[in-house]
Each structure stands twice: as structure tokens, then as C-alpha cells.
Amino acid sequence: MHIVLVMVGGVVLLGVFVLFGWLWGASAAGMAMGAKAFLPAWLVMAGVNMWVGVAHAGYSAKEELPIFFANFLVPAIVAGIAAWQLSRG
Question: Which terminus, N or C, of the chain has the lesser number of Cβ atoms within 10 Å?
Fold first, then answer.
């Protein structure tokens, strides 16, 4: 259940980045830039989530690595699609 909550949190955070992109740029290009800016921030957040799993929850890095990829890739794919669609229009 934690994995799903982290993924949903990532998509919500993407929405916040896209909203700030609109507020700063007032255009689809600004929103696309917000989606692109989300990717490095989300990579750091997913890494912190992995570190917490290894350091505090007692999982090994080998056990946490697939969870890290799932937690990062699902919101990152949504961000990539959003940036692609927003930059087209």
C-alpha cells in the first residue's frame, strides 16, 4: 500500500509543479517546463524514500531497488507524457 501512496503522492506533486508552471509562465510552455522540472525533484524524493527503506525499515538495497524504480518511473512517465502533450500545444 505504501508504494501506491508514494506513486499517488508523486502524481499530486507533479500537479503542483504544473500548476506553478502555469502561474509563472501563464502558458502551456510554462506548464511543460514545470513538468520537466518535476523530474529531478522526484528523483531525489524517490531516492530519499529508498534511503529510508534501507536505513530505517531494515530492507536491503537489493530489496528496495525495484520499489525505487516503480516509485520513480510511474510519476516520471506521467510527467513525460504531460510535458510532451503540453509542448505540442
Answer: N
CA-to-CA dists, residue 22 to 16, 43, 81, 83, 87, angstroms = 10, 22, 17, 12, 13
pLDDT along the chain (89 residues), means of 10: 91 94 86 92 94 86 90 94 86
Q: Is residue 8 a part of any domain in this protein?
A: no
- Orientation of helix 61-88 relative to helix 28-55, angle to 10°: 180
- pLDDT for 57: 80
pLDDT at 89: 66
What total number of domains does the chain contain?
1
Taking CA atoms, 10 is separated from 5, 67, 70, 88, in Å, by: 9, 14, 11, 23
Domain span including residue 41: 28-89
